[in-house]
């Protein structure tokens, strides 16, 4: 049981509950003692109850927050890449298999979503180009 980590992070929306893991007790069972709650969005770390966090606790939590933030950012990009794949599959479905009734169900919603996305992408690209050149034309 010595392979267990000292800390366990139970992921939840916007963060995690932080537990200190103890497997070195007389009963030889794993005890998990909640020591804090972490909010990734605002960086807030709340000790559990009237507990004080040690410098090691804080360092481990900060390390996990950095790792988790990076992991979520990577997943977000991966989700968008998957969305592009799904858009391509949707185009193929529309061209080869969709019935008129199915197209009637989805066409307006798809066109509005695609128009919205296109508008946002064009605006963001123009903003980047202005920042890169340092001027507006």
How would you explain this protein's 3D organization?
Keywords: Plasmid. With 137 residues, the protein is α+β, with helices and mostly antiparallel strands. It is built from two helices and four strands. A four-stranded antiparallel β-sheet has the order 1-2-3-4, covered by helices on one side. The protein starts with 6 loop residues before the first strand and ends with a helix.
How are the SSEs ordered, and which strands pair?
Elements: E1 7-12, E2 15-22, E3 31-39, E4 45-47, H1 55-96, H2 100-133
Antiparallel strand pairs: 1-2, 2-3, 3-4
Structural class: alpha+beta
**How many helix segments?**
2
Largest sheet: 4 strands, antiparallel
Order of helices and strands: EEEEHH
Instruction: Name the helicity range.
Output: 55-70%
Overall shape: it is: elongated
Work out the count of structural domains.
2
Side-by-side strand order of the widest sheet: 1-2-3-4
Mean pLDDT: 93
Integer-rounded radius of gyration: 24 Å
Q: State the separation between the terminal residues, measured CA to CA.
A: 66 Å
How many E-type strands? 4
Keywords: Plasmid
């Amino acid at each position: 049981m010595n392979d267990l980590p000292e800390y366990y992070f139970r992921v939840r929306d916007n963060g995690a509950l932080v537990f200190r893991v103890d497997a070195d007790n007389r009963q030889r069972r794993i005890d998990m003692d909640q020591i804090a709650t972490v909010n990734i969005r605002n960086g807030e770390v709340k000790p559990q109850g009237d507990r004080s966090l040690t410098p090691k606790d804080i360092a481990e939590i900060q390390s996990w927050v950095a790792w988790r933030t990076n992991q979520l950012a990577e997943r977000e990009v991966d989700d968008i890449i998957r969305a592009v794949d799904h858009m391509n599959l949707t185009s193929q479905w529309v061209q080869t298999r969709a019935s008129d009734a199915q197209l009637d169900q989805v066409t307006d919603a798809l066109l509005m979503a695609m128009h919205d996305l296109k508008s946002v992408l064009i605006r963001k690209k123009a903003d980047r180009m202005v920042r890169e050149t340092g001027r507006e034309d």
